[in-house]
Amino acid sequence: MALTELISNELTGELLRNLVTISRKSILCRGSADQLITYITELLPTIQEIKYSGVELPQPRQQQLHRLSEILHSGVELAHKVLNSSRWNVYKNFQLAKKMEKLENTVSKFIEGPMQTHILADVHHTRFEMAERFDRIEASNRRLEQYFVTMKMGGMGGGGWVEEAVRSMEIAEGSLGNSRVGLELGKKKVKEMLVGRNDLWVIGISGIGGSGKTTLARDVCRDEQVQFSFKERILFLTVSQSPNVEQLRARIWGFIMGNQNLNPNYVIPQWMPQFDCKTETRNLIVLDDVWSLSVLQQLVCRIPGCKFLVVSREKFQICNATYEVELLSEEDALSLFCHHAFGQKSIPVAANENLVMQVVTECGRLPLALKVIGASLRDQNEMFWEGVKTRLSQGQSIGESYQNNLIERMAISVNFLPEKIKKCFLDLCSFPEDKKIPLDILINMWVEMHDICQTEAFTMVVELSNKNLLTLVKEARAGDMYSSCFEISVTQHDILRDLALNMSNCDSICERRRLVMPKREASGLPKEWLRYKDKPFEAQIVSIHTGEMKEKDWCNLEFPKAEVLIINFSSSEYFLPPFIQSMPNLKTLIIINYSASYACLHNMSIFEKLTNLKSLWLEKVSTPELSGIVMKNLSKLCLVLCKINNSLEGKELKEADLSRIFPNLTELTLDHCDDVTDLPSSICEIHSLQNLSLTNCHNLTKLPAELGQLRSLEILRLYACPDLKSLPLSICNMIKLKYIDISQCVNLACFPNEIGKLVNLEKIDMRECSMIRSIPKSALSLKNLRLVICDEEVQDMWIDVQKAKPKEFHIQVSEQQYDLDWLKD
């Protein structure tokens, strides 16, 4: 009995201890259940984000994450069971407690085991990838530095890395084969109208914006059969929304008559329609981007042997026949998109095919949308693609109001750009439609506006080109493959310009960062501007596009924050706006005359007020007398197609002191300034000058004997100065000179004997300098010379230099380049 009681008491005590343990576990279990639900609810989204981040994980790791996700889901269910279980159901609570312990152990083991391994693996991969990326970045920086130096000097192989971007763009287009994807049928039909039908003299190409009309027209012009039929007598003109009709008429008639310098007032005869069109001379005139029938009627006339190809969004009745450009087929749309998104014609194996097809569908089979959106997605991860696809699908489909919807879609791509690149893209709307923008203008503007160096500004250009948001164009002139950035321009599709305008005009007119007149206004300033003339404008860029402006046509406007002023006009007389003198922060001033004759500028006294001006670009104007004006902060001056007249002379025909007028000038460019015969000697006193470019100055006969005093000069361009017969001996004292371009100086007879003193000289460009038949012996001392570009018949005179430094020195024989009229704007 005593034994039985003893055993009974022991069992009862053990049971009570177990019950207490179970009860404690149940109580703790219920307390932990609330925390567990909160913890798992917070943790599960992170697990899901890792699983679907778009980063490829090895299959075992994907399976482990999937298993952990399932365990955590079951944990939530278990926690809810614990909370719903009766406190007195001891057995059930015990079982639930055991399951909670098992769950805790499972999660702990994963965190302490595989999770740590994953972290180590990720750290290892991250270190490796970052090291690899840093190596690539360092290599890119080294290349960028080297390219920037070569670009500034004309570059190895010519033109530097911006030209490399131009070449890569051309190669990329060529890699599509007859690319211009989906246009083969249209090309065949237009060719038949031009070459096979003598009864047609006005042929049209019509279609919606961005459908590839201009691309088709240019492809037709490049076609060998078309060029043979018209014996390369092809003129390509862009008309635009605000054309200068008189200038276009002069260009057309001058082309037909073989005289490109006709007076714009020359009266073009209207030939009778029944005139028999039979002549050996055949001409093709392409009128691109025509917006109005009234303009077209002033440009076309029936002339023997002459055909007009009219490219427009409208279908004009004046055209004898019109080809309507159709949207791309689904197959061609996919091919074009993949070319720009992946660099190949089909969807890569690793890509999400369904996602790619959805994005292509949203582009509406329009070439421009496919190129821009495709390029914006290149090298992006799947989550980025998903974001773009979602944004695209939220908009309306590209239908009847296609242009607005197309602009909305492409705006999505622009909004994903880095902020600084986006700003640079939007700045492009400040220039007139369908006009080439000299690259140098853009670079100068961005350097001053965005507080960036030239290197970064050039990267912006290349990046926008890679995204198909602008096009880089080389000037078609002999030897252009060796040209510098001065022969490279930027163009932009008019829909892309409209996109930039729309995005820039979101704010109220007084608060816009860019205040732009979208097209030429014949009657002066827009009424919208005049309504707010009593309020200050916040704009940093102000762009004006007018005809002739007189003093009475202006009103006082306030632009306290303006840093860039762009004045575009078409007239022979122009009164500069008085409000310029109330722009205290103006850094860049660009004045371009688009008329056929030189313009005389009035109100030049305002320049005295521009104390912060750093960059000045004047084009096709008669420059005024400079004496009496001091521009102490001006660092870059560019005069293109200008009449210098006596502006380099002071009062009483005494030489102006340029070193006093421009005490801090670093770059001076005179291009196509035909009345320049010599330079004032005071230019040699501008000791800050680093870049002197005298290009296409056909009447320049001599340089100042003291030119060698420019000890800071690194770049000397004397391209296409045919009357220049000698170089001053003193240039051998330019110890920092790195690049000299004397190409097409056909009467230049020799190099100075002491050229060997130019110890930092790296490149000489001397194409078409047939008068130079030998080089001084001192040339062997040019220890840093690495490239000479010359014609084949004179390359032998550099053989001794090549033998002296066989590895470092290279002779590059130039190729003959041909100038095609139709490539000019």
Tell me about this structure.
The chain is α/β, with parallel strands linked by helices and 825 residues long. Among the domains are: 1-112; 183-267 and 278-324, Rossmann fold (3-Layer(aba) Sandwich); 662-824, Alpha-Beta Horseshoe (Leucine-rich repeat, LRR (right-handed beta-alpha superhelix)), CATH 3.80.10. Helices cover 39% and strands 13% of the residues. The protein is built from 22 helices and 24 strands. Strand 3 (283-290), helix 10 and strand 4 form a beta-alpha-beta unit. It is globular.
Please write out the topology.
Elements: H1 2-51, H2 59-84, H3 90-112, H4 114-153, H5 160-174, H6 184-195, E1 202-206, H7 213-222, H8 224-229, E2 234-238, H9 245-257, E3 283-290, H10 293-299, E4 306-312, E5 321-324, H11 330-342, H12 353-362, H13 367-377, H14 382-394, H15 402-415, H16 419-427, E6 437-438, H17 439-449, H18 454-466, E7 471-474, E8 488-491, H19 494-504, E9 514-516, H20 527-531, E10 541-546, E11 564-569, E12 573-575, E13 588-593, E14 599-602, E15 615-619, E16 621-622, E17 636-640, H21 658-661, E18 667-671, E19 691-695, E20 715-717, E21 739-741, E22 763-765, E23 787-790, H22 799-804, E24 810-813
Parallel strand pairs: 1-4, 1-5, 2-3, 3-4, 9-10, 10-11, 11-13, 12-14, 13-15, 14-16, 15-17, 17-18, 18-19, 19-20, 20-21, 21-22, 22-23, 23-24
Antiparallel strand pairs: 6-8, 7-8
